[in-house]
Amino acid sequence: MSTTSIAWFRRDLRLFDNPAWAAATTADTALALYVIEPALLDSAGPFRRNALLHGIRRLDEQLRALGGRLRVEVGDPAEIVPAVADESGASSVHLNGDVTRWAQRRDDAVEQVLRVPMHRYWGTLVQPPGSVLTKAGTLSRVFTPFHNAWREVPVEPEAIAAAASVPDLPGAGAPAPEGPPPPTADALLDMATERAAAYPDARDLPGVAGTTELSTALRFGLVSARGIARALTGEGVGADAIVRQLAWRDWYAHTTHAHPDIDRVALRPEYDAIEWERGPDADRAFDAWREGRTGYPIVDAGMRQLAATGWMHNRVRMITASFLVKDLLVDWRRGERWFRHLLSDGDVPQNAGNWQWVAGTGPDAAPYFRIFNPTTQSRRFDPDGTYLRQWVPELAGLDDRGIHEPAAVAPLDLAAAGITLGQDYPFPIVDHTTAREETLAVYKRALESARDE
Ligand SMILES: Cc1cc2nc3c(=O)[nH]c(=O)nc-3n(C[C@H](O)[C@H](O)[C@H](O)COP(=O)(O)OP(=O)(O)OC[C@H]3O[C@@H](n4cnc5c(N)ncnc54)[C@H](O)[C@@H]3O)c2cc1C
Q1: Interval 268-307: pLDDT, tens
Q2: CA distance 294 to 374
Q3: CA separation, residue 52 to residues 10, 181, 313 (Å)
Q4: Residue 1: its pLDDT value, please?
Q5: How far is 197 from 179, CA to CA, in rounded Å?
Q6: pLDDT 10s digits, 170-215
Q7: Among 192, 273, 372, 381, fewest CB within 10 Å belongs to which?
């Protein structure tokens, strides 16, 4: 009797090295299914929505090359997956797991109502949660020991699909993407290989295209994380530095698997006592940050890059996040949500993990008393102002020193560059030195109150 299996795709929109797809293709017929969950699509900002819809299209194209289609349905997976299984006579459902609490709840709900077995794999990380443990059998709360252990775990070989037939039943279909298509995964992988040698020197410079730009493709599983690790490990210092970043990605995913509330709760609970700024002043500060008009050019450049492109350079993500939390004393959770809404790679584990790192509330985080000086960071990592001139063009006429701190530029030089502060570009929203002292006091109070309890 001929057999049918379903591969339920979610964050793994590819056929290459996809364990769930490879397992489904051991049946005679492998039905490829994607369920668009309206609440998730609505919560994604325009860039992530566009990336997802293009990803779905490209997966469909890959399946067409095999003579079939991606079946796309819209609605609640707990209704749709069992209905498709019943209708197709499938004897099993295969999927790659996801670490967020929503995904775990959703997958458990589907499994409960399915009348056929559901098999879970890991296809979006280099190493699955639970596979990288300390000698005591726990997940390390510090990155370096995690990384050391991670390097020792062999990367699984490529999951190779069998030659199942693929049905040509498109279902309801997906909405058309509204933005331009992102580069193909093959083009991105070529770019990553080309940039690898210079990566250690260039990766911190936002004015240089020196990172891999793979994050959105990784977010949607258009590329195989473990495939990249296999290809780059041992291929030189730069290639190894890229692979190390994939270990950070795994670490935040494993941490989220263990602490699914990572976007809501400080992983070091003593910091949940911080008295964040609230009320209209905090709202005004938050708006100025979101809109890129804080008067700190590097912060404004980053926030404008995010709003215009759905992506921001990692160094600038750190600077802008630090500014919101430690200069404006706005709760990191507000910033996390805004980033996640707009980033095309926006992802709970990576975003919340990094926000907690910046806020100093995560397990292995920047210590709270280390506060980025945005102007010093700007001079160090964008010395000739290339990045600032691109994103804050109203300051382009200032010289390479003044552009980082227009409020310190002499009035005559400002006038020569055609800038009136407060009109063409804002005065600094806070004084960094004063804000720093206040933040240190607030963090200290939170720690002391936790100690007294
Ligand atoms: C406040 C803040 C929020 C962030 N939010 C996200 C997010 O929502 N989604 C996301 O994918 N990354 C996030 N990052 C991590 C990082 O900024 C991006 O992954 C990186 O900028 C993407 O560019 P790239 O692909 O060129 O990175 P590369 O430098 O080329 O790195 C290669 C890959 O390694 C991974 N990686 C790199 N840096 C980190 C890191 N610090 N943490 C975890 N993984 C990393 C990414 O998957 C990246 O694609 C955030 C960082 C900060 C400071």
Answers
A1: 999 999 999 999 999 999 999 999 999 999 999 999 999 9
A2: 11
A3: 10, 10, 21
A4: 85
A5: 32
A6: 899 999 999 999 999 999 999 999 999 999 999 999 999 999 999 9
A7: 273
| Residue extents of the structural domains in the chain | 4-123, 125-157+186-258, 269-452
Q: Ligand 1 pocket check: which of 214, 299, 350 to mutate, most ligand atoms within 8 Å of Cβ? A: 350
Which residue is it, tokens 């991105």? 188
Query: What is the Cα–Cα distance from 49 to 31, expressed in whole angstroms?
Result: 24
214 CA to centre of ligand 1 in angstroms: 9
Q: What is the pTM of this model?
A: 0.97
Count helices and strands (H / E) in the chain. 20, 5
Q: Which of 136, 332, 352, 144 is nearest to 252 (CA)?
A: 352
Third-level CATH fold of 4-123: Rossmann fold (3.40.50)
Q: Are the CB atoms for 26 and 162 separated by under 8 Å?
A: yes
- Contact criterion met (CB below 8 Å) for 216 and 166: no
> The CATH number of 125-157+186-258 is which of 3.40.980.10, 3.40.1010.20, 1.25.40.80, 2.50.20.10?
1.25.40.80
- 428 DSSP assignment: P
Q: How far is CA 356 from CA 63, 161, 202, 278, in A?
A: 39, 39, 25, 19
- Side chain identity at residue 193, one-letter code: T
CA-to-CA distance for 255 and 103, rounded, in angstroms? 15
CATH value of 269-452 in 3.40.1280.10, 3.40.190.10, 1.10.579.10, 3.40.50.2000: 1.10.579.10
Q: List, chain by chain if needed, residues with CB within 6 Å of any ligand 1 atom.
A: 203, 211-215, 218-219, 242, 245-246, 248-249, 252, 314, 317-318, 321, 339, 343, 345-347, 350-351, 354-355, 358
Tokens of 92: 């099993």
Secondary structure (3-state) at 65: coil
